[in-house]
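Minutes, methods subgroup
Present: GH (chair), OT, SY

1. OT presented the first of two proteins processed in the latest run. Sequence and structure tokens recorded below as shown on screen.
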Amino acid sequence: MARMRSCVQLGLVLVLIIHLQLLHVKSDATGNISRASFPKGFTFGTASAAYQYEGAVKEGGRGQTIWDKFAHTPGKISDGSTADVAVNQYHLYNEDIKLMKNMGMDAYRFSISWSRIFPNGTGKISQSGVDHYNHFINALVASGIEPYVTLYHWDLPQALDDKYQGWLSSQIVNDFAAYAETCFREFGDRVKHWMTFNEPHTFAIQGYDLGFEAPGRCSLLGHLYCKEGNSATEPYIVGHNVLLAHGTATDIYRKTYKKKQNGIVGIAFDTFWYEPTTNYTADIEAALRAMDFNLGWFVDPLMFGDYPSSMRSRVGSRLPKFSEAESTLLKGSLDFLGINHYTTWYASNSSVESILNDSIADIGVLTLPFKDGIPIGDRANSIWLYIVPQGMRSLLNYVKTKYGNPLVIITENGMDDANSPFTSISDALKDEKRIKYHNDYLTNVLAAIKEDGCNVKGYFAWSLLDNWEWAAGFSSRFGLYYVDYNDKLRRYAKDSVHWFQKFLAPN
């Protein structure tokens, strides 16, 4: 039965790929769109993360996180900065809520810092941490902004990494579930949309395969880059424990809190869209395989109870197995798919043996943003972010076809400019490129809904403010609002704010 299901899905998706290659020729058009263009009840918001926004790392009883340690390690952050202050939303949240309200946004996606609730990861609850998020959530609700809460956006309590290597130990499943239940109990009367994790694929790869992000583990180049780790096994162990932690937390919510609180639980998944470099079958299959190792790695177990067959065959015994009970726990444990989508790349089959023994080599796919020397789209500031609006429509159709048209919320979408000392504030506020980005991507979201029948109910722009962008530090500006890092973090509205105000205005 599993093999039959896999073959049927492969056939459907192969047909879809060919259809989308034809579709994208005509789906690049943009027009005048507004809130009224979208179905009634569609949610618009902005997104953020605790570690990138809050600052106040030693206030309110907060414990240390793996990112505190990583950011203070020389050479890990491109501009040498830390997020000790970030953009100070811990103290300035009332001001930021006014910015959201003035734009006409419906909702705000933010994350709770685990180490503010449990400074040591487990044990005694910090009442100061609970009080802070209660005040924040109450202020959002009072302003008519709906809270969308992520429980884990990469900032693992350092105490758990010290105690048992964090996500590499199955012990974390129960510790995360206890933390999640605390949040459900304390905040669930007002929070109706929960995301257990943000981008598990990213922190499994970047943190435990490549070592570019916290906790900085890898075995590449014979440990010349990372002091410890195993790139061939650890990403898969991390992903496995994340899935079980999600399933356990969701089970607790559904059994204990859902009936009274009436909320829903999902995950925010990062995913590129991959266009086959050619129409040859090998490249089409390579693009599908790239999607399996990106999105399918985490969504397939939650929809079907197991990893994609391509992962099982290529990773072999290094890919952990689910027991029958675990498979049952995971299957169907997702009320909605959060999709963080920014860009599209080309994918082609690669039969060349890689010198790297890691999860990226396992895919057997060469992915690039170029074909015949021509970029797939205009580039933003980040070296990986190419602007390909039709990729959003293709991705949403892929999700619809492969997973049975589940409820989808676009939990992140946006582009960045460089933080250049040679650019004046007045010039930085003129972000026509960002306006076009959001207009064109939203146009493709709308086409996916109205023309293709995709079940999409929300869109969150990354990000409300310029902020601390992980290993890129303050070198990258994704915000709708400009933050002056040299003048008490003063916020200035970019032109994209005024565009969203007009876009979201009633009538």
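2. SY then presented the second protein from the same run.
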Amino acid sequence: MDLIQDYEQQYAVLTAEITAQIGRIGTTQGGERTKLIADIDRQLEESQELLEQIGLEIRDIPQATRVGYTSRLNCYQAEWKRLQQEFNNAKTARSNRNSGAAGYDSSVDEFDEIGIQEDQKRRLLSNSERLERTGNYLKDGYRVVLETEQIGNQVMQDLNDQRETIQRARGRLRETDAELGRTSRILNTMIFRALREKIVLVGVVVAICCVLFLSIYFSMSD
């Protein structure tokens, strides 16, 4: 999850830079504009690769935390599509202005310059709102990660408590089994002694009966 957060931070920085550069397309010309467009294309590809890396990392995290990260990834992908569309619109708008520039006088050029400035202001406001939304996404994502971590820690604590309870119950069962074994041995000893005493008692009774019988027999013989 630390790697995902690193990718998210890189993506936020990269999209902020892309947003700022898109706003400069309307004010650049010639080779500078060509280089700027090439840089934006490269950065869009890098940001898309970051989103793909985030998607791969999300597949390897537990199911319990995957939902929040997937939702954030969907927001990033939607934001990337808006950046791509804004980039295309900026290139098209400048091309249209250049193709229609012939045949206009200086007053028209000044009016067009004012329009460009207004368009830049709108873009800057839009970019600021986008950056603010991206910051809010990151804050929400960080909050989800903290909540998920707390839930995971609580679950681990509960599992540890249950494991200790099971271990104590197991120990009590072993102690109970040992006590039952000792009790069984004691009962067997008592039963053996009782049987032995009964045998001795029966032998004594038989001996007394024999003595009485012999005494009566000899007394009658006399």
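Chair's summary of item 2: Residues 99-114 have pLDDT under 50 and may be disordered.
Next meeting: continue with the remaining queue.
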